[in-house]
């Protein structure tokens, strides 16, 4: 369980990015397109579950997209915990950019790509979401989950942009500086929630991935 500080109940939220997919490896833009884990992604998820940074997990939530729910399933098996899928935990919707490579997007939408890289807070993806919209969705849903499960250790397996916009809100980083944050596949982020406010303990933790590398050197 998370702890109670004085009379204030503190809830721990462990945000996890899904394991690698083939489209990650190809550096394709995708958000709502449902792509499963690659062989490497499955291995990353297994290493995460077997070396999870928390000894107790009370609840596991996951984006309803396969790459997230399959990553969550490894954690659920490790802790004998059911996974609850939630559409509100999805990645940003990349609209017409879904499935395209950087160069393909740059060729057709050069100005939008410039804004994506320099002022993500001002970007409107064609037929997609804005980062502001995703941030509002992320903050609202994770806050609801925390309020409904006060004092518990909660895992939420989701996506890179979703996690970064939530971290930006928690750290009071303007969205224009969103790319100052990085999320590797199966990275772990730990936040504490109390009475509507957030405290960040860990960002982009990947120690579990190094365990396999160390084993191969001995």
Layout: helices, strands, pairs:
Elements (H helix, E strand, L loop, with lengths): L3 E2 L2 E2 L1 E7 L4 H5 L1 E2 L9 H12 L8 E5 L2 H14 L3 E4 L13 E2 H7 L1 H9 L12 H18 L4 E6 L1 H12 L16 E7 L2 E9 L1 H9 L3
Helix pairs in contact: 2-3, 2-8, 4-5, 6-7
Q: Please, could you describe this protein's structure?
A:
Its EC number is 3.1.3.73. It comes from Pectinatus haikarae. Pfam families: His_Phos_1. There is one protein chain. The chain is of the alpha/beta class and 218 residues long. The protein has one domain (4-94, 131-215): Phosphoglycerate mutase-like (Rossmann fold, 3-Layer(aba) Sandwich). 39% of the residues lie in helices and 21% in strands. Helix 2 (39-50) packs parallel to helix 3 (66-79). It is globular, with a radius of gyration of 17 Å. The chain starts with a strand and ends with a helix. Residues 214-218 have low confidence and may be disordered.
By CATH, the architecture is named 3-Layer(aba) Sandwich
* Helix proportion: 25-40%
Mean pLDDT: 94
Q: What order do the SSEs take from the amino end to the carboxyl end, as H and E?
A: EEEHEHEHEEHHHEHEEH
Strand order of the largest sheet: 6-5-8-3-9-10
CATH topology: Rossmann fold
Largest sheet: 6 strands, mixed
- The CATH superfamily title: Phosphoglycerate mutase-like
| Text of the CATH class | Alpha Beta
Strand coverage percent: 15-25%
Brief description of this entry?
The chain has helices spanning 22-26, 39-50, 66-79, 102-108, 110-118, 131-148, 160-171, 207-215; strands at 4-5, 8-9, 11-17, 28-29, 59-63, 83-86, 100-101, 153-158, 188-194, 197-205.
């Amino acid at each position: 369980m998370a702890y109670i500080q004085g009379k204030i109940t503190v809830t721990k939220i462990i945000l996890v990015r899904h394991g690698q997919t083939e489209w990650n490896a190809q550096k394709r833009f995708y958000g709502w397109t449902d792509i499963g884990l690659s062989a490497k992604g499955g291995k990353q998820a297994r290493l995460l579950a077997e070396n999870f940074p928390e000894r107790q997990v009370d609840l596991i939530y996951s984006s309803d997209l396969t790459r997230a729910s399959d990553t969550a399933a490894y954690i659920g098996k490790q802790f004998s915990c059911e996974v609850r899928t939630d559409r509100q935990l999805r990645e940003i919707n990349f609209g017409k950019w879904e499935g395209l490579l950087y160069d393909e997007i740059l060729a057709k939408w050069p100005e939008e790509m410039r804004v994506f890289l320099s002022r993500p807070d001002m970007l409107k993806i064609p037929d997609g979401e804005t980062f502001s919209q995703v941030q509002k969705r992320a903050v609202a849903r994770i806050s609801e989950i925390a309020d409904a499960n006060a004092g518990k250790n909660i895992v939420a397996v989701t996506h890179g942009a979703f996690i970064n916009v939530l971290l930006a809100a928690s750290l009071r980083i303007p969205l224009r500086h969103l790319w100052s944050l990085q999320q590797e596949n199966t990275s772990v982020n730990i936040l504490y929630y109390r009475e509507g406010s957030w405290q960040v303990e860990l960002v982009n933790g990947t120690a579990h991935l190094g365990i396999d590398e160390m084993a191969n050197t001995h």
